[in-house]
Design a protein that fits this description.
This protein is 40% helix and 27% strand. It has four helices and four strands, in the order ββαββααα. The mean pLDDT is 88.
Length: 95
C-alpha cells in the first residue's frame, strides 16, 4: 500500500506506519478519535513522532460490513492513497 507500511500484524493487533502522520499531532489526535468510534476497535495509540498508529481490535466484530465501511470512511478521508480493501485483508480474522 502506497504511503503505508504494515509494521506488525496478527489477529486483534496491527501497527501501521503512515507517512502523513509523521510530525502531525493534530492529524494523529483526529485519526485516533475517529478510529476509536468504530465498533470492534478496542484501542488506538497514535505516535506522530514515528508516524505510526497501533490498533487493537476484535477480529470477528471488525470484519462486519458496518465496521469495515466505517474503517473505509475514516482511512480514505485522511489517507486516500491507502487501498482500504488491502487493509481489510490485513485485519481479517485468520482461520
Amino acid at each position: 500500500m502506497e504511503g503505508v507500511t504494515v509494521v506488525l500484524s496478527h489477529p486483534g493487533h496491527v501497527v501501521l506506519a503512515l507517512a502523513k502522520l509523521k510530525g502531525n499531532p493534530d492529524l494523529a489526535r483526529e485519526v485516533e478519535a475517529r478510529l476509536l468510534a468504530i465498533r470492534g476497535i478496542n484501542g488506538v495509540a497514535v505516535n506522530p513522532e514515528a508516524g505510526e498508529v497501533e490498533i487493537r481490535y476484535e477480529p470477528d466484530r471488525l470484519s462486519s460490513l458496518t465496521s469495515l465501511w466505517a474503517l473505509k470512511d475514516v482511512m480514505t478521508r485522511f489517507f486516500p492513497e491507502i487501498d482500504v480493501w488491502e487493509l481489510a485483508a490485513v485485519l481479517a480474522p485468520r482461520t
